[in-house]
Amino acid sequence: MGDTSGGVGKSTLTTELALALRHAGKKVGILDVDLCGPSIPRMLSVGRPDVHQCDGGWVPVYTDADKSLALMSIGFLLENPDDAVVWRGPKKNDTPPGTSDEHLSVVENLRKHRVDGAVLVTTPQAVSTGDVRREITFCKKVGVPILGIVENMSGFVCPHCAECSNIFSKGGGEELAKMTGSPFLGCVPLDPLLSSSLEGGGDFSQSFPESATFSAITKICHTLLETLQVD
To answer: What is the pTM of this model?
Structure first.
């Protein structure tokens, strides 16, 4: 899950797609390589568990009793959640934002695991889609297939009447997909219910299964499963 700018909702969509895949009966692992702003542990209400090492490296933390969703994050390795990660050189690998040395290091380290591809996230505005266009070029240069583009924050869902208003315009992600020949996975609106669920570490899909946001995320999840032909 990537893009070249911060604040478009990569961590949010990573968390919600992981939960959707888990509810679809899949075993899911999240590698949170946002070293400078690890937020996924909070979104999954994991807290500060002890992380152990084995011969193969760090052992991921399971977020549920069934051990169907595993997570590894720099957030687990900080003494204090408010600590800044002040690293430089080979120690630093941080995905958002950019297409520089950190991204190259992540791609090289994951290449041996046969990465199926990347899901790119944008918001509808031209500023954001322009950044993602550079990410698409990066993926093509390093040989990472593009599974699709998601237009996040595509409209605002009113918590009172459920009407969706286009605050940031609409259609930029879909137009970008057409221009670059990339699959378009769908639009996900801004939803206060999703925001409050993430803040509290709740499972949005279980709490609000009738919402338009849930339907959008579920559709993206099923499209990805069909694309990857996962049984």
So the answer is: 0.83
